[in-house]
Design goal:
heterodimer, A: alpha/beta, D-Maltodextrin-Binding Protein, domain 2, 2 domains, two-stranded antiparallel sheet, globular, B: mainly alpha, MetI-like fold, three-stranded antiparallel sheet, 4 strands, 65% helix, extended, Phosphate transport system permease protein PstA (chain B), membrane (chain B), phosphate transmembrane transporter activity (chain B), MetI-like (chain B)
Chain lengths: 348, 448
């Protein structure tokens, strides 16, 4: 083996590759963001690749915030075209985007995702929860006789006599997840209000912000475990702990109905109908954001977006609904929005 | 003489037949130590067997897949509304338009085989993979003359059906599963008896591309394998010359001073740096600063090169060091220059060691996931086969370990099996590379 030959060959490869890097223009759509939206985006991307002459778009995961951050890095072929998000874009993110020249963004709501509370199918009878149960079970501190005391509840039956008498072992999404935000707002805060704890804290003379953060503070004594991974990890934790209760996305639950049983929340069973009607309380809209500047530059970008929200894809009975997405009743308006390339702030 | 007899008289009686206490103690200690050693090896072997056993047990099923043979009537009214047999017009019918054809064909097959079922014809779609409609459409567009005829298709069964044939899905779990009913399984049993449903080896698992969350039955490792291949090309092409040049200089030419000491210590330190650190470095330098494309095997290869370099430098230096100084002295003695002595004599003798080190370094890089997480190689990425060399380096792609990681976190339990299967493929590559390294060493290594 000759060293000279090897060196020459590798230099040529390196040069060719970097030369091509500069010359290449991108012909596929690049997407990044929420791991909750990823399954839907991958289903659409796959079908898009099959039905159109464009290459299959590339969908990366990494979380809503990370995706939006990359989305806001600037305009150009080296930046992503679409960011998936399991929450609406924040004011600060829009500003950060604008500062980097990404000022025209099209917001697309693709549907709703339910957040469900499930436990082992053969485990204790967790069949009905109220937001107040979760607040009392998970709060770090509870108001009692005009003072905050450490949460004394050790068993589910302590918070609600109708629940099984097993130790509280909750597996909730970690703080980097978009799901956590929804859980805090729609379950913990709601429970805080329902139980009167919020009023009690107000009466104690606490500031409103302090009350809210006290309502959403989760105990750290081991009864509640933050899961920073994805639902697969939550499922594994529940499989090894019969008394565990976990927080899942509806789609994940629908794909694992043989091992998980779901509980009602506020007396409503989570399914596509109750979530789209808004009856089931814990749900959130899912979005993706398109850079308007990339439309017409990246081949297939607009077609992909139109395809995503087409009735046969995102509507009732489409592959996304089959997987667990709750269809958006206002899909027609969204389709029109993409057709007209209406950006945020325009029209709406 | 008298001293010796006195000492002999004082010492306790000794015999070479009975062992005295202290010797016994020493022997026992040695025996104990051997037992510990054997126990340690046995424990290691047990772990290895358990590990390999569970990998094989869980993963081997991924190499087989269930297929359904079904004749489909390609209805012109649905496939070619204009009746022109013009592929361009027919392309307007999307894959969704083909689904009714397949459902009808499935229901037809069930009645034809005389199977009685309570499953409504409209629910037959739980039996086959949603990839089947694309298969129909591709075939029709490639050959429009088929329209109006009944063509036999060999389509993938749905992942739940496949799981039933592989004992992953039982009738108990089906009762709680919303995606499929026991009635479907009765149909599968009946069709299997007729030979319409078969489970056979699935090359697409090894050669195919990644699939979306809703159809694990279609997912394959092929594209990710190509991604790994192109990354390894970059690693080999860069780290071998750089690593060898650096170590030859350090070992043969560099003066021994404080600066080279610092460099040496740092190379050893770099070899111990966690690989995720190289991922962050890659993200900051290659993607954000140098603006290389995201998710490209080129960037992955560059990051892994950084990670592999210290390993290669260390093993190359060890190989060079093991060449006896007499070789160098002899070369210099007959009038060779320093460079000639290195390149004509020392390097060829050190080559087996260098190659072994390089292959081990490559094998390590091949199995590395952590740095790839940060440069965007995890997700639904490995979907398009690269169309050439430059697209192989630059188009978004994944790598084998990243693909396994991605499969392991998907919701459908069928992906779990595929993750194990992917591990088997990856292990086969690693074993092969290690075997090559051992062979090279056996064949060419010289002992001095």
């Amino acid at each position: 083996m000759s060293i000279t030959k090897l060196t020459t060959a590798s230099t040529v490869i390196a040069l060719a590759a970097s030369g091509a890097a500069l010359a290449q223009s991108r012909d596929n759509v690049q997407i990044a963001g929420s791991s909750t939206v990823l399954p839907y985006a991958s289903i659409v991307a796959e079908a898009f690749g099959e039905n159109f002459d464009y290459p299959t778009p590339v969908v990366e995961s990494g979380g809503s915030s990370a995706g939006l951050k990359r989305f806001c890095e600037g305009v150009g072929e080296n930046t992503i075209d679409i960011a998936n998000a399991s929450r609406a874009m924040r004011e600060g993110e829009i500003e950060a985007c604008a500062a980097n020249g990404v000022d025209e963004i099209i917001e697309v709501r693709i549907g709703y995702d339910g957040i469900v509370f499930a436990s082992q199918i053969d485990g204790p009878e967790f069949t009905a929860f109220e937001p107040s149960d979760w607040f009392l079970a998970l709060a770090a501190e509870l108001p009692q006789d005009g003072a905050m005391v450490t949460n004394p509840n050790a068993q589910w039956s302590d918070v609600n006599a109708e629940l099984p008498a097993v130790d509280i072992a909750a597996f909730i999404p970690g703080t980097k997840h978009g799901t956590r935000e929804v859980f805090e707002e729609k379950v913990l805060l709601q429970g805080c209000e329902d139980t009167g704890a919020m009023q009690a804290m107000m009466d104690m003379g606490m500031e409103e912000d302090a009350v809210e953060s006290a309502c959403m503070a989760v105990r750290t004594d081991g009864a509640s475990v933050d899961i920073d991974g994805d639902y697969t990890e939550t499922l594994a934790r529940i499989s090894s702990n019969p008394d565990g209760v976990g927080v899942f996305g509806l789609a994940f639950y629908e794909n694992n109905t043989d091992t998980l049983k779901v509980a009602t929340m506020g007396g409503v069973e989570p399914n596509v109908d109750t979530i789209s009607s808004g009856e089931y309380p814990v749900s959130r809209p899912l979005y993706f954001y398109i850079k308007k500047a990339h439309l017409g530059v990246i081949p297939g970008l607009k077609d992909y977006a139109m395809f995503f929200v087409a009735d046969e894809v995102a509507g009732d009975g489409g592959p996304l609904a089959e997987y667990g997405l709750v269809p958006d009743p206002e899909l027609a308006a969204t389709q029109e929005k993409i057709e007209n390339e209406t950006t945020m702030g325009e029209g709406s | 003489m008298t001293d010796a007899t006195a000492a002999a008289a004082l010492a306790p009686k000794k015999s070479i037949i009975t062992v005295d206490d202290r010797t016994q103690k020493r022997n026992a200690a040695e025996k104990r130590f051997r037992a510990y050693g054997i126990a340690a090896i046995a424990a290691g072997m047990v772990f290895l067997v358990v590990l390999l056993g569970s990998i094989l047990l869980n993963g081997v099923t991924a190499f087989q897949q269930t297929f359904i043979q079904v004749p489909v009537y390609l209805d012109p009214a649905k496939v070619d509304k204009e009746g022109n047999r013009d592929p361009e017009e027919m392309a307007k019918v999307s894959t969704f338009g083909y689904k009714p054809l397949l459902i009808e064909a499935m229901a037809e097959l069930v009645t034809e085989r005389g199977i009685e079922t309570e499953i409504a014809p409209g629910d037959m779609d739980a039996l086959f993979s949603s990839s089947a409609v694309a298969q129909l459409r591709d075939r029709v567009l490639a050959n429009p003359d088929l329209v109006g005829e009944t063509v036999s298709f060999n389509i993938l069964a749905a992942s739940r059906v496949d799981g039933y044939l592989k004992d992953r899905v039982s009738r108990d779990s089906v009762a709680r599963d919303k995606n499929i009913d026991a009635g479907h399984l009765d149909i599968v049993d009946a069709l299997r008896a007729e030979g319409d449903v078969v489970k056979r080896f699935n090359w697409d698992f090894i050669l195919g591309s990644d699939a979306s969350e809703s159809r694990p039955e279609q997912a394959g490792m092929g594209v990710a394998m190509l991604g790994s291949f192109f990354m390894m090309l970059v690693v080999l092409g860069l780290s071998l010359p750089i690593g060898v040049a650096a170590s030859i200089y350090l070992e043969e030419f560099a003066p021994q001073n404080r600066l080279t000491d610092v460099i040496e210590v740092n190379i050893s330190n770099l070899a111990a740096v966690p690989s995720i650190v190289f991922g962050i470095l890659g993200l900051a330098v290659f993607i954000q600063f140098m603006e290389f494309p995201q998710s490209a095997p080129l960037v992955g290869g560059l990051v892994l090169t950084l990670m592999t370099l210290p390993t290669i430098i260390i093993s190359t230096r060890a190989a060079l060091k093991s060449v006896p100084p007499s070789i160098r002295d002899a070369a210099l003695g007959v009038g060779a220059s320093k460079m000639q002595s290195v390149f004509h004599h020392v390097l060829p003798l050190a080559m087996p060691g260098i190659l072994t080190g390089t292959i081990i370094g490559l094998a390590q890089a091949l199995g590395e996931t952590a740095p790839l997480l940060l440069i965007g190689m995890v997700g639904y990425i490995a979907t398009n086969y690269p169309d050439g060399i430059s697209s192989g380096f630059l188009d978004p792609n994944s790598a084998m370990p990243a693909q396994i990681y991605e499969w392991a976190k998907r919701a459908d339990p069928a992906y779990y099996e595929r993750a194990w299967g992917g591990i088997i493929i990856l292990l086969v590559f690693l074993f092969a590379m290690n075997a090559i390294a051992i062979l090279l060493r056996r064949k060419f290594e010289r002992r001095w």
